[in-house]
C-alpha cells in the first residue's frame, strides 16, 4: 500500500493507563486506506475505545506512532490536533455527544462551526450547507418533522442517525464509530448499518468501526480481530 493511500496508520502503538502495571495493548500495527470500511472486532474491555481515542489524537502519550493523512499526532501541539481532528475526522461514539439544547439540524451543522475545511466541503453558502445537512438526515431516514426538535427529545435510535449525519457532513477523510449499533435490535441494526454505509460511500470517507459484534462484518470491506492486532505481522490490515 502506498503511503499516500493511507488515511490512518498505527505503528507499534501501545497504551498503559497511569498507575496500571500492564499495558492495555502494545505493538499494535494497523492501517486504513482511503474509502475503506473496516470492522475492528474485540471483546468488551479489550481496549477498542482507547485505541479510537489514540487514532483521533485525543490521547497522545505512549509508545509508537499514529498518523492521520501522513501527519503524526505526537508532533502536533494540542490546538493543532483539535483543528486537524475537526477538519478530517467524524466521530460516532456510544454516547453520541449531541448537544441536547440544539436542534437536530444545528447538531448536524456543528462541524461547520469548528472547521472551515468541513464547512467549505459541505457547501459554499449557509443555505447550501443546510441543504446538505438535510440531505444527510433524509438519507439516514430521519423524518423532517424532527429536524427542528432539540436533540434531547429524540429516541436513542434517532439520536444515532443525527450523530451519523453530523459525522459525515463535510466529507471527512476518516469516520470513527464506537459500537454505533449497541442500542439497536437486530432488524434496526442491519437497517442502520446499511444507511450508514450508504452515506459513508457517498462522502468517500474511510470508516473504522469498533464493536464486539462480529455480525457487523457483512457490512464492511474487512474485519480485523483484536487478537490479530498485536501479532506484528499486519503492518496494513490483514483481513481475518
Ligand atoms: N480512564 C481509565 N482509567 C483507567 N483504566 C481505564 C480507563 N478507561 C478504560 N480503562 C480500562 O482500559 C481497558 C480498555 O477499555 P476500553 O474502554 O478501551 O475497552 P473497550 O474494548 O472499548 O470496551 P467496551 O467494548 O466494553 O466498550 C479496560 O480494562 C478498562 O477497564
Automatic annotation (TrEMBL):
Keywords: ATP-binding, Cell membrane, Membrane, Nucleotide-binding. InterPro entries: AAA+_ATPase, ABC_transporter-like_ATP-bd, ABC_transpr_LolD-like, P-loop_NTPase. Residues 8-240 form the ABC transporter domain. SUPFAM superfamilies: P-loop containing nucleoside triphosphate hydrolases (SSF52540). GO terms for cellular component: plasma membrane. It comes from the Bacteria. Gene3D superfamilies: P-loop containing nucleotide triphosphate hydrolases. One of its GO terms (molecular function) is transmembrane transporter activity. PANTHER family: ATP-BINDING COMPONENT OF ABC TRANSPORTER-RELATED (PTHR24220:SF611), IMPORT ATP-BINDING PROTEIN (PTHR24220). This is Methionine ABC transporter ATP-binding protein. It comes from Vitreoscilla filiformis.
